[in-house]
Write a structure and sequence with these properties.
Number of helices: 6
Helix content: 55-70%
Oligomer: single chain
Distance between the termini: 29 Å
Structural class: mainly alpha
Radius of gyration: 20 Å
Shape: elongated
Largest sheet: 3 strands, antiparallel
Strand order of the largest sheet: 1-3-2
């Protein structure tokens, strides 16, 4: 595999496993965490299913499940190799931005459900107050996320072009 040229494959593997362990600790399933870390550590940011399976010593079925999960949470995308039926999986430089902003629709649904919960349980009940506080938290964060993402794009453009 051309990815390892000029690099120590053991050092790459150690990074992949260490970073994947950090992602697992944060709640990402183990196989998607390993696949994501491998893609992140690849110079091109792309690998095929066969390359991922070989590098991580996992089955093609494990790769398939992992990339399906990662695509659903907007951390990677799938691309067809020109003139081939093979797919490549790509991690983008803005994967964190995409993953965070894709959560906006989910958070909106949570907010609606929490509003309904406060109304049904009663704002003055302990459960209603807890739901209201959770709703306030999401609304507070939502206001700051938009500005934070704008600042991030400006910072990224200045630093990385």
């Amino acid at each position: 595999m051309t990815e390892a040229v000029g690099r120590d494959p053991e050092a790459v593997s150690a990074f992949v496993e260490h970073f994947a362990a950090q992602l697992v600790e944060a709640g990402v399933p183990r196989m998607p965490a390993r696949v994501f870390a491998a893609l992140l550590a690849s110079d091109t940011g792309t690998l095929t299913s066969a390359e991922l399976a070989g590098q991580l010593r996992i089955s093609p079925a494990a790769v398939s499940g992992a990339v399906r999960y990662l695509a659903q949470v907007h951390l990677i995308s799938r691309e067809r190799e020109p003139g081939s039926r093979r797919e490549r999986y790509r991690v983008h430089s803005d994967q964190w931005y995409e993953a965070l902003t894709s959560r906006e629709a989910i958070i909106k649904r949570w907010e609606a459900a929490l509003r309904e919960g406060v109304a049904r349980l009663g704002a003055q009940t302990p459960a209603g107050r807890r739901l209201a506080e959770t709703l306030d938290f999401f609304e507070f964060i939502e206001k700051d996320v938009a500005g934070m993402m704008e600042r991030w794009r400006a910072h990224r453009d200045r630093k990385y072009g």
